[in-house]
């Protein structure tokens, strides 16, 4: 089988691909016809047999081989893209390929999207799919870089993930780039192999950061991440693209004495999401409740950085001998899951809210609990840009789709402590302030008179000094006047005597 696969990739696939694609484009890519107002697609073997060199014997059936092999891509005149896949297990399992990763840009601009596949028809080991949501462009040259193709996980034949994770889709490498165009007035197709990087180990989870204490409601931020290792050395991880799905979820629990315990769950419609991460992106979260703390992290981290960020204690309140600190730590299970991983991508944050109420009506006890959160699943890494030994690589990724458990990987504990000495001093100060306020309230009616008397007492020495100074000044003034009178009399008497 290995010899066949090597021969298939090196000789048979390119030959079949070029001939069949030339024929498909020469026909204008028209592989469907209208019937009764609906599209009717041609059969997979009908398309493949249009190439006279197509040999079905090169594609044996093997009921125990559940892999997928992309034979070729084709464009239709209606702007659709088809994928022809060889599935060795054939009708024994009759798997449907579920999705495919394709980039319509190449080289430094490569950017993968995950497209759903819809099976149109199959014969034996040959399957024909429509790529949903991808419309062929009008550009003269069109590229499709295909990194991998997926089928649904089957627990009877596939190995599931550890640590509460679940594999939702199994990946198969394609690592092929297809180019369509016209040269010298004639259509052509080119298919070449491309480099990829493979995820060898993976864990999907989240850490939960409390928003602080809030009456009745318990709020938090769920920070979602994927930890992984690869088959290639990475010195510095620069960029990463992640695909995942989000789904709203509400749990309603209620009970009464007479009716017992009841549970209702409501799920929203799953939404496709993409996260485009760079090494210099940072995220900060601060809760709005009492005793809330602030968390900060990088979008792209090493596992060591991730653990260090979530293994620390922060003091969030200190006053009057009362100290409140928040301790965050990774659980033992979380540490085991992260132990053999290299990198962590923290790709999204969602809100968590839980409220509990208990009511006694007419002697009947009612209990209500409501939880609102977001379920994140189907996580796959699409692209990694990284530096190794001074060289920068920008590659598509071979990775499965995987979902984490509904339990956070961290424990967050609030610790409240009292310092007796500080508390006693603070209490004494508080008592003195309260006593002073009470005294002021009691004395308020006569407070103006008390203030006036206090001011009189305070100013009394100054008033005495002022009176003495005034008396001295007056005495000096009176003495000076008497001297002046005596001097005037002495001057007048001799003149009067002469006149006589």
The averaged pLDDT comes out at 83
Residues in helix, %: 10-25%
Strands, count? 25
- Rg, rounded, reads 43 Å
Strand content: over 45%
Q: Using the alpha-carbon principal axes, give the shape.
A: elongated
Q: Alpha-carbon distance between the termini?
A: 168 Å
Largest sheet: number of strands, sense, barrel closure = 9 strands, antiparallel
The DSSP helix count reads: 6
Describe it.
The strands form 5 sheets. Strands 3, 4, 5, 6, 7, 8, 9, 10 and 24 form a 9-stranded antiparallel sheet that branches. A 5-stranded mixed β-barrel has the order 11-12-21-22-23. It is α+β, with helices and mostly antiparallel strands. The longest helix has 53 residues. The N terminus and C terminus are likely disordered. The protein is built from 6 helices and 25 strands.
């Amino acid at each position: 089988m290995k010899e066949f696969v090597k021969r298939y990739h090196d000789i048979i696939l390119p030959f079949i691909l070029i001939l069949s694609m030339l024929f498909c484009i020469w026909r204008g890519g028209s592989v469907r016809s209208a019937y009764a107002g609906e599209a009717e697609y041609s059969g997979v073997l009908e398309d493949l047999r249009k190439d006279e060199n197509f040999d079905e014997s090169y594609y044996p059936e093997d009921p125990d081989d559940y892999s997928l092999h992309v034979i070729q891509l084709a464009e239709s005149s209606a702007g659709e893209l088809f994928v022809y896949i060889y599935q060795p297990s054939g009708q024994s399992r009759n798997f449907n390929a579920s999705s495919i990763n394709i980039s319509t840009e190449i080289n430094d601009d490569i950017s993968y999207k995950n497209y759903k596949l819809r099976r149109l028809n199959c014969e034996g080991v040959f399957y024909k799919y429509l790529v949903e949501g991808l419309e062929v462009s009008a550009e003269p040259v069109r590229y499709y870089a295909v990194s991998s193709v997926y089928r649904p996980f089957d627990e009877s034949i596939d190995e599931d993930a550890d640590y509460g994770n679940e594999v939702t889709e199994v990946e198969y490498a394609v690592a092929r780039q297809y180019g369509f165009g016209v040269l010298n007035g004639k259509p052509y197709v080119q298919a070449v192999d491309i480099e990829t990087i493979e995820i060898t180990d993976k864990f999907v989870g989240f850490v939960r950061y409390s928003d602080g204490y809030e009456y009745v409601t318990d709020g938090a931020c769920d920070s979602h991440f994927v930890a992984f290792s690869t088959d290639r050395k990475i010195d510095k991880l620069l960029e990463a693209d992640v695909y995942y799905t989000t789904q709203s979820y509400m749990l309603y629990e209620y009970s009464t004495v007479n009716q017992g315990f009841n549970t209702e769950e409501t799920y929203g419609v799953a939404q496709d999401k993409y996260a485009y991460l760079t090494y210099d992106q940072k995220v900060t979260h601060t809760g709005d409740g009492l005793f809330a703390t602030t968390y900060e992290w990088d979008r792209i981290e090493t596992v060591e950085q991730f653990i260090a960020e979530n293994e620390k204690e922060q003091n969030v309140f200190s006053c009057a001998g009362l100290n409140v600190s928040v301790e965050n730590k990774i659980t033992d299970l979380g540490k085991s899951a992260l132990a053999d991983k290299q990198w962590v991508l923290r790709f999204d944050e969602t809100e968590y809210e839980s409220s509990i109420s208990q009511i006694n009506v007419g002697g009947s006890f009612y209990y209500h609990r409501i939880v609102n959160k977001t379920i994140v699943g189907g996580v796959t890494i699409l692209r990694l840009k990284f530096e190794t030994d001074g060289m920068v690589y920008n590659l598509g990724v071979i990775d499965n789709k995987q979902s984490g458990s509904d339990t956070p990987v961290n424990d967050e504990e609030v610790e409240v402590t009292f310092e007796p000495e500080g508390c006693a001093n603070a209490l004494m100060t508080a008592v003195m302030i309260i006593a002073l306020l009470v005294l002021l309230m009691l004395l308020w009616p006569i407070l103006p008179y008390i203030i006036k008397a206090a001011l009189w007492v305070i100013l009394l020495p100054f008033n005495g000094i002022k009176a003495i100074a005034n008396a001295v000044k007056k005495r000096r003034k009176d003495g000076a006047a008497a001297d002046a009178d005596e001097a005037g009399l002495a001057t007048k008497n001799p003149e009067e005597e002469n006149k006589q």
